[in-house]
Amino acid sequence: MDLKWWKEAIVYQIYPKSFCDSNGDGIGDIKGITAKLDYIKALGIDVIWLSPFFKSPMKDDGYDISDYYEIEDMFGSTVDIDELLAEASKREIKILMDLVFNHSSSEHTWFKSAIGDPNSPFRDYYIFKDLVDGKYPNNWRSVFGGSVWEPLEDGSCYMHTFDKSQPDLNWENPQLREELYKVVNYWIQKGVSGFRIDAITFIKKNQIFMSLPPDADDGLANVGKLTMNQEGIHLFLQEMKEKTYGKHDLMTVAEAPGVPYNELLEYIGENGDFSMIFDFSYCDMDVDDNGFWYPKGNWNFDEFRSMMFKSQRSVQKVGWGALFLESHDQPRCIDKFFGVKLGKEDDESFRKGSLLATMYFLLRGTPFIYQGQEIGMRNLKFNSIQEYKDIATKYQYMRALSMGATEVEALHMAEQRSRDHSRTPMQWDDSAYAGFSQSASWLPVHVNYKDINIHAQIAETASLYHYYKQLINLRKSSPYKKVLIYGGFEPILEDYSQVIAYKRFLNGEPTIVVVINMAEESNSVEILLEDMNIICSNYHSDYIDYRDNRLWLKPYEAIVLALKTL
Ligand code: GLC
Ligand code: CA
């Protein structure tokens, strides 16, 4: 058993722009986060991951950084960050910062120098190529649409995997790498406990930059094919580790799309690059291989289950994983898993939210909770594409139209997938602007805030908030802590449709059995249970219907049992 603090932690992701606004300008800020630390502590959180708060023109809401050392004005100042770190530390809450190192903002001084002067020493910090006969070097498609190449007046062009305001950094350049390591060390010395590392599998580009057979009718090919998880990437990642966080006992969690399971060892094995990575395979089940939201991918719970279990098994073989359902890039999970029912809250919200929570929270790995997930915040209905702010949504909308979708269909797609759904302001109470701000917020507050808010759910003991707290306590301070954290994972009852079930086990510890009925109807499974304790139920019951070796499950029921043997 390889004990690590970050295996025992529970992480809460904060999207600063939408968490809490301390000065009434409608935008969340750092002082707002500091003001809510007691709330976070009371929930049982050990670690906060802060999405970027650095200087940024906010074209991609902070994932376009123009200065890695300075704080964006709308979020506050260095003094505020120091205060947040100090106040968090007083409460024994650790902070993870977001490192966005695949690209900078086009407003970064390096890029401004590079673009203004072909002989600039910073030119090689980015990827510039010459146009040939007025044509781009290749047909790679950027993640936010169109070519990855942006032409300049001087006959050259530069590469951007994401938006054109996010030029890719050239990791082949050793000075650039040293500059980035300086950033990491600066923040370590400030007192952060680790990093979430953005889009990191993209940093190593295949240096031939060749065109690929088009994979859609725009004639372009997914940039990831020759820029994601390419040979040689571990030289960069190991170097960064050695020169920065590898020297300290820190937590690193990498956003690492495109890593096949048989290559996990280098990323998260004993001498791997990171503590853990996010595996998107099962949470992106509704998105196709090129990242297109339209047409929506078909999936069902049984397929989802086998993807999630495959991930668990593969990660378990080599290292440790990150568990999540939501983030600032995902829609709200109740809507994603059970379909969007816009405009009204159905009675089953609690049941569905608690079922999903039980499903992922007790898997093997470090659980992440995204702000508002703990109260079941939902997707918001926007009436037109103009109301969306998210750069990805605008692109996917246009792309859907170009694929022949009607406006209604394209809007429906956005209703399901837009990243703005997770970015609407946090719902603190039922006062004006949901207690998020004193004035109208940058994205509208969800219409359901009077029903769904922190204040109300703290007061109501049967709420999702309290259910999350119960799960957190199980993992942190119950007699089952050891097995839930360090125990092995094994699927059970895989022959049953619409049932997600697994056990966690560890020598000398009780075995934990999690059984979840994903269906709207009752269900039953054959299972041998002896000497069991019910340790959690989303029907709040201390009784289960177990007869003749059959466990009867109510609609959307989630049950967690502890037993001596299975
Ligand atoms: C990551 C971030 C996402 C951002 C992208 C480009 O995927 O999570 O929000 O748009 O990288 O930085
Ligand atoms: Ca503010």
Beta-strand percentage range: 15-25%
Main sheet?
A: 8 strands, parallel
Mean pLDDT: 96
**Oligomeric state as shown:** single chain
Query: Helical element count?
Result: 16
Compute the separation of the termini in Å: 22 Å
**What molecules are bound to this protein?**
alpha-D-glucopyranose, calcium ion
CA-based gyration radius? 24 Å
Strand order of the largest sheet: 13-12-10-5-2-1-15-14
> Could you tell me the number of beta strands?
23
The helix content, as a percent range, equals: 25-40%
Kindly name the structural category.
Answer: alpha/beta
From the spread of the alpha carbons, the general shape counts as globular
Low-confidence stretches: none
Topology:
Elements: H1 5-8, E1 11-14, H2 30-35, H3 37-43, E2 47-50, E3 54-55, E4 67-71, H4 78-90, E5 94-99, H5 109-116, E6 128-130, E7 140-141, E8 149-151, E9 156-159, H6 174-190, E10 194-197, E11 221-222, H7 233-243, E12 251-255, H8 264-268, E13 276-278, H9 301-318, E14 322-323, H10 333-338, H11 349-361, E15 366-370, H12 391-402, H13 407-417, H14 454-459, H15 464-477, H16 481-486, E16 488-491, E17 499-505, E18 511-517, E19 523-526, E20 530-537, E21 545-547, E22 550-553, E23 558-565
Helix pairs in contact: 11-15, 12-13
This protein binds alpha-D-glucopyranose and calcium ion.
